Amino acid sequence: MLTCTAEQLRNHLDELIFLARETKEPVTITQDNCPNLVLVRADVLEDRERILRHRAAILEAEFSRLNGDPT
Fold this sequence. Notes:
The protein is an alpha+beta fold. 61% of the residues lie in helices and 21% in strands.
């Protein structure tokens, strides 16, 4: 994951968008040395959200199974 400052974001937005798009890696934007925002491709974000929803559904099914709930 790439990291840059808010100032670098202001000065190099086009380049950072290009990097995020081409590498498919998130770019973390820091302010006062603390992570503040993440620049990420929309399709990468959608894929990660889909994976998280899928994992949550599996976890919920496993908890139900362990509680003896009917399947």
